[in-house]
Amino acid sequence: MRLSLIILCVILSSCAHAQKKNQENFAQDIIAIKKVMEEQQKAWSRHDLEGFMHGYWANDSLKFYGQSGLTKGWHQTLANYKKSYPKPEDTGVLNFDLLDISQITPGAYWVMGRYHLKRSVGDAQGSFLVIFKNMEGSWKIVADMSASDQ
Fold it and tell me: Reading across the β-sheet that carries 93-105, which strands appear in turn?
């Protein structure tokens, strides 16, 4: 009986420790993902589209779904941004409103939110859902679905 009680205590203690560790990892992941998005806001707002793209997986398997349909690949996504936002007044100042960050699996999260562009050529806003994956210690967007309110 005593041995069973000791084993039960050890099991419960290790479960509590694992849960606390998972919560700590989750909190660290969220901070890291938010940092990537903060850096994207800064890069976009200074019309540094290449810097903005540092938050994306630099791979041909990157997927972006927007008003023009599905785009595949980092280079094509950057080319589309450069075509749609050729001048600083087109990019304006970007702000994200993050509404939900949820873990999909260990090492992968979705982020749902709203984007707001304050621009001299007319403000723009819309919704997005991005999927972040931990790629060799760096959080990168592997899929993006964005829609303008217009």
Answer: 69-72, 63-66, 138-148, 124-135, 108-118, 93-105
pLDDT at 2: 64
Give the per-residue pLDDT at 26: 87
The CATH code belonging to domain 2-148 is 3.10.450.50
Residue 49 phi, psi (nearest 5): -70, -35
Using CA of residue 64, residue 37, residue 84, residue 82, what is the dihedral sign? negative
Check whether 110 has a pLDDT greater than 80: yes
Closest to 147 in 3D by CA, of 93, 31, 69, 87? 69
Is residue 126 a contact partner of residue 149, using CB atoms and an 8 Å limit?
yes
Contacts of 58 (CB under 8 A, 6+ apart): 74, 140
Where do the domains of the chain lie? 2-148
> In 3-state terms, what secondary structure has residue 3?
helix
